[in-house]
Amino acid sequence: MALVEERMHEIGSDEWSGGASVGDFFELLKPRVMSLVIFTALVGIVLAPGGVHPLLGAVALLAIAVGAGASGALNMWYDADIDRVMSRTAGRPIPSGRVTPEEALSFGLVLAVLSVFTLGVALNWAAAALLAFTIFFYAVVYTMWLKRSTPQNIVIGGAAGAFPPMIGWAAVTGDVSLASVVLFLIIFLWTPPHFWALALVKSDDYARAGIPMMPIVAGNASTRRQIVVYSVIFALIGLAPWALGFGGMVYGVTAGVLGAIFVGLSVDILRTGDGPHARKVSMRLFLFSIFHLFALFAVLLGERLATILAG
Q1: pLDDT digits (tens, 9 = 90+) for 115-125
Q2: What is this structure's pTM?
């Protein structure tokens, strides 16, 4: 409670007038991030052995989505002070004055409790516990601690965005497995090069907000080298579903080709350095990384659905 009161004072809640619309609260959920959560969780549900009734699967997916939205709302509540000084976040509901900090906090907490309780009652408490931990990890460990204290914020904090397929898997089976851990690792290792590519472009924004992103703390050259290292590791782990047998030949070829392109784009960033095309090259990797991750999970989903329909 003391932390909440202190944070309200730091944010300066008296500056907000409220009067939020439904759309403003929906924006608090970070719908673009939520769409990735829903999709990767769906893949975890479909790939899990044994299957689940479609209605229960839909409930699980909804609970995971609401939990992700709760994390987003709590993140925006705590980060309202830095969102105000960053160009890409200044228009969010809280810094723009459309939602009060108190409303965002209450909204996030209610959704968090509701999502965990629903998943536990409808499916199982193992999945619910994993969802609760994910919300805690993103809202507290990443947002309140790592984001403002270490350039490794994205590396460690990326775990929060990597849990959804594991939660989906656990919703069906009641536990985790090597396959679900691999799905987790694919997203976990994708996160650093994805966000560092953006950080190279938006470093002035992060510096103005006092966020110790890698380019600010270690420099652009070091960040580019680390992007290459993580890109290679990500490309290799991307082949793991094929190597372990829960991804087919189509997946293996897709992962191999996209992984090679991903590494190539990361090397381009390294070669370009701080040249005139540096921002363009970094954005190219950032945008391709979104397609890359979506394609990997889409092929896994497609192969599994084809097997189900054929059998």
Answers
A1: 999 999 999 99
A2: 0.91
